[in-house]
Amino acid sequence: MSFSSNVKEELTREAVKARHCQIAEIAGIFQNIGKIAVNDDTVELTITTENVVLAKRYFELTKKAFRVSPELIVTTSEKLKKNRVYKVYIKEKKSDAAMYGALKWQVKEKEQKIDEPVDKLIIMQSCCKRAYLRGVFLAVGSVTDPGKGYHLEIVVTNENKAKQITDEFLHFGIEVRTVERKGHIVCYIKEGEKISDALNVIGAHSALMELENVRIIKEVRNDVNRRVNCETANINKTVNAAVRQVEDIEYIDKVMGLKSLSPQLKEAAEKRLMYPEATLKELAALLNPPCGKSGLNHRLMKISAMAKELRGE
């Protein structure tokens, strides 16, 4: 199973005891994959999904919240993969339409999908906001395996739904961006820390721990790589500088001899030839008397300038 599927399976195990939270989660699901059909005497409410775990969750929630008897219909998709399609169908009398009345959507046609936001009264409390966002994610959300990257997205049909989702996440301090893609609005998060916060809000705590473990490993690995790269760069810099210094000293020795240098420069040159791989700090400690790193660097720079002058540079 994918990481996203594991998250959804974990969410369906989240116990929802309060009826108002059950209704909020149902609203989040139905808003995105539901359809309402109004006849003369009845109202029919149907969700369609290829996710059996989601179908079971919705079936149980509606049964508890509204004491209805949903019907589960299993068909085969007409697409190439021929996946199973699960429909949860609820039929209510208009005179006693508990679920239809609780969801508060106004039906303008005999049959329609939901294009409107969820009524604010349904998601007034923080616990209901969490339940609503959980329902939305179960219906139309996905999250990438953190080992491959950080990306959580929720795909909805219009900007009104997208705004409600981003507003409810913002209630918990989580900023969600949106972008249009193929006629839909995608609400997405690409930062690992914010995805962790989002998983916490909707109740996917095991997935949150898994993501955090991956984040820690990645951060440690990146830190080690940065340190290694920094040390490698410093070693290369030291080696290249020493090579240039040796070349300059050998050139001066060839052209005019090291005896022509002042005692301090001559000692520095001889030590560099004797210890070509030593760092400036190590080399400075070998002088008699020892000097500081900056003092030795100043002497070697003088030697380098002298070599350039001899070369006519």
The proportion of residues forming helix, as a percent range, comes to: 55-70%
Strand content: 15-25%
CATH first level of the largest domain: Alpha Beta
Query: Distance between the terminal alpha carbons, to the nearest Å?
Result: 68 Å
Indicate the overall shape: rod-shaped
Q: Kindly provide the radius of gyration, computed on alpha-carbon positions and rounded to a whole number of angstroms.
A: 35 Å
Looking at the structure, the CATH topology of the largest domain is Endonuclease I-creI
CATH homology group of the largest domain: Homing endonucleases
Taken together, the total number of domains comes to 2
> In CATH terms, what is the architecture of the largest domain?
Roll
- Our count of helices gives 11
Characterize the main sheet.
Answer: 5 strands, antiparallel
Q: H/E order of the elements?
A: HHEEHEEHEHEEHEEHHHHH
Based on secondary structure, the structural category is alpha+beta
Total strand count, please?
9
Mean pLDDT: 89
Quaternary organisation:
single chain
- The largest sheet has its strands arranged as 3-4-2-1-5
Low-confidence stretches: none
Q: Could you characterize what this model shows?
A:
The structure is a single chain. The chain is of the alpha+beta class. The chain folds into two domains: 10-203, Endonuclease I-creI (Roll); 234-311, no CATH class. The protein contains eleven helices and nine strands. A five-stranded antiparallel beta sheet has the order 3-4-2-1-5. It has a four-stranded antiparallel beta sheet with strand order 6-7-9-8. Strand 6 (141-143) and strand 7 form a beta hairpin. Helix 7 runs antiparallel to helix 8, helix 8 (205-255) crosses helix 9 (263-274) and helix 10 (280-286) crosses helix 11 (293-311). The chain is rod-shaped and about 115 Å long. The mean pLDDT is 89.
